[in-house]
Design a protein that fits this description.
The chain is an alpha/beta fold. The protein is built from 15 helices and 15 strands. The chain folds into 2 domains: 3-186 and 395-413, Rossmann fold, CATH 3.40.50; 190-392, Rossmann fold. The protein has helices at 20-34, 66-69, 80-104, 119-131, 153-159, 167-174, 198-207, 225-237, 253-263, 279-286, 302-311, 326-333, 364-374, 376-392, 395-413, and strands spanning 3-7, 38-44, 52-54, 60-64, 109-114, 138-142, 161-164, 181-182, 212-216, 243-247, 268-271, 293-296, 314-317, 338-340, 355-356. The strands form 2 sheets. Strands 3-4-2-1-5-6-7-8 form an 8-stranded mixed beta sheet, sandwiched between helices. It has a 7-stranded parallel beta sheet with strand order 11-12-10-9-13-14-15, sandwiched between helices. Helix 6 (167-174) links the parallel strand 7 (161-164) and strand 8 (181-182).
């Protein structure tokens, strides 16, 4: 058993839950607790919540920098520079104290840092621990390339172990002369549970005969929103009467997306439902829409989201640069058809367990749609093989590799 300390900006609070990093950290923490480890998650949390909170199973949530967050109520990245500076300065001595307390109890500690915002804290913590003679393996993980220019890689690689999540990301790290170990991302076991049959049925009935595609992602250029809009416009121009169900994030880039929608002459229906809306509620609302685009302007409950993934003709998760492709795996776990990109999805087999978008031409979506419509047996294969793939990436199976790496690092640092 280890004391595992997760260090990241994002976490389980709505305030801190922006994207895939929050999903990774929250699900990883739960999986580690279920495996018997003692887990502490340090993150930039909601300023209105307790500074330290004990959860079921022994998980400890520690919300950092709340005094700054109180002045920046939007989300975890509101006032990011001030939070980064405070985090980098104040977290390292606290981590060293945690390691020292664990050593006095005869326990082992491993620190897992995530993304560029924690790199300076990792350097600081490693420096303090070395000075105090503390032996606690430290790992810094690169989930994407954001902020690489802010990371002191020559120092970081000398002090901590560096990991990443895919072959694509390993090659990106090599560009900055950094060797890394690959530890794949994972999905929570709950995603592997069968979606109640009545949920996707209710949604499919609301879709009617219209080709229906879904995209749930941050409003960001890397997520290829403009390609998706152009693809839907191409389907409309081909007389296919498509429907595009979309859910984004708070971002200035939403203005760019809105401008492209207007430029392509696509009609938009906005749906604002309670966060408790069921699949049947959503289906009922969708059935009243007529536009090519349905904008979901509300937080979607996970059960409803899983039903949406399972029922659509496809989920567009094909980013420009995808470090891993967590959404694609979640879609597969639900029995949905994931349309992924060409970069970080090591698990994707074109038309074997997913559809891989191979070109920049938005008309490729039409080709893929027509291929699957004419071959229902291929659709069945994609859905079943996708589920099988997702099972191989459930956290309980992935964690074996993590623990083996910790054990090796513990021997090397002792």
């Amino acid at each position: 058993m280890w004391n595992v300390v997760l260090v990241a900006f994002e976490g389980p609070d709505r305030y801190s839950f922006v994207g895939g990093l929050a999903t990774r950290m929250t699900d990883l923490a739960e999986a580690l607790v279920a495996r018997g480890h003692r887990v502490r998650h340090i993150f930039i949390g909601d300023p209105r919540q307790p500074h330290v909170e004990m959860k079921d199973g022994g998980l400890v949530l520690e919300r950092w920098g709340q005094w700054i967050s109180a002045f920046h109520p939007k989300d975890v990245y509101d006032g990011e520079e001030g939070k980064y500076a405070d985090f980098s300065r104040t977290v390292p001595p606290h981590l060293a104290d945690l390691a020292a307390e664990a050593e006095r109890r005869g326990e082992r500690t491993v620190f897992l840092f995530e993304d560029w915002q924690t790199a300076a804290a990792a350097i600081g913590a490693a420096t303090i621990c070395r000075a105090r003679g503390l032996h606690a393996p430290m790992f810094w993980n690169a989930n994407n390339t954001y902020g690489f220019g802010r990371v002191d890689f020559p120092v970081l690689r000398r002090l901590v172990n560096i990991t990443t999540i895919s072959r694509y990301m390993r090659m990106e790290l090599l560009k900055v002369d950094v060797e890394s170990a690959i530890l794949p991302n994972g999905i929570a076991d709950r995603w592997l549970k069968s979606v109640p049959a009545s949920d996707p049925v209710a949604l499919r009935e609301s879709f009617g005969e219209r080709p229906t595609y879904v995209k749930v992602a941050r409003f960001d250029p890397d997520k290829r929103w403009l390609w998706a809009i152009d693809a839907i416009a191409a389907m409309r121009d081909a007389g296919m009467r498509p429907r595009f169900i979309m859910r984004g994030s708070r971002s200035d880039y939403s203005d760019v997306i809105g401008a492209r929608i207007r430029a392509r002459g696509l009609n938009v229906d906005r749906l604002a439902l309670p966060s408790t809306a069921s699949a049947r509620d959503l289906g009922s609302a969708i059935s009243t829409t007529t536009g090519e685009i349905v904008f979901l302007d509300f937080f979607i409950a996970e059960r409803t989201l899983r039903a949406l993934y399972a029922s659509a003709d496809g989920v567009l998760a094909n980013s420009e640069k995808e470090p891993f492709g967590l959404v694609g795996l979640e879609v597969m776990a639900c029995g949905g058809i994931a349309y992924v990109g060409r970069t970080g999805e090591d698990y994707a087999v074109p038309f074997g367990n997913a559809v891989v978008m191979q070109s920049e031409d938005p008309r490729e979506l039409i080709t893929a749609h027509e291929t699957l419509r004419s071959r229902p047996e291929l659709v069945t294969t994609l859905r079943s093989e996708g589920r099988a793939t997702a099972k191989r990436f459930a956290w309980p199976r992935i964690l074996e590799a993590y623990e083996a790496l910790w054990e090796t690092a513990a021997v090397l640092t002792s």
